[in-house]
TrEMBL record:
Gene3D superfamilies: Homeodomain-like. PANTHER family: DNA-BINDING PROTEIN FIS. GO terms for molecular function: sequence-specific DNA binding. This is DNA binding HTH domain-containing protein. It comes from Gluconobacter sphaericus NBRC 12467.
Length: 148
């Protein structure tokens, strides 16, 4: 592993598991050294439109792992996204984060329903009037076309 410390070494590590790494560590399924090494690596995940589809797929999972898995998937990218905002205290952090997630989510569902707001509201689990209000507030253009 000495070659990793050399100047100019470019390494990309992609690691993922549906299992809790702390539980694996306790049960002996993951070595402590590997866990420390992986935890110390800088994460290249980002919260944004390119991650929304992956988050939606994770949220569509089944069983009790669904909320915990979604939260775990968002924890690190959200921490990186908010790093500077947590200290300056602008007071609009919640609205900013909700808008960043809600805009692509609503757009994706509207695209999937060919712009049918009633179907989109049912999928999202909100009232149609609430959806219309959020579409207006977020400045979302209602897509027209065929289901993807």
């Amino acid at each position: 592993m000495e070659w990793l410390a050399q100047e100019g070494t470019d390494l990309r590590v992609i690691a993922g598991s549906r299992h809790d790494p702390v539980l694996l560590l306790r049960q002996g399924g993951l070595s402590a050294g590997l866990h420390r090494w992986l935890s110390a690596l800088p994460a290249a995940q980002r919260l944004g439109p390119e991650r929304i589809s992956a988050v939606c797929r994770l949220a569509a999972g089944t069983g009790t792992a669904r909320p915990r898995g979604l939260g775990r998937a968002l924890e690190r990218p959200l921490a990186e996204y908010l790093e500077g905002d947590l200290e300056n205290g602008a007071g609009d952090l919640h609205a900013c984060v909700v808008g960043e997630v809600e805009r692509p989510l609503i757009t994706m569902v509207l695209r999937r329903t060919c712009g049918n707001q009633l179907r989109a509201a049912a999928i999202l689990g909100v009232n149609r009037n609430t959806l219309r209000k959020r579409i207006r507030e977020l400045g979302i253009t209602i897509p027209k076309g065929i289901d993807e």
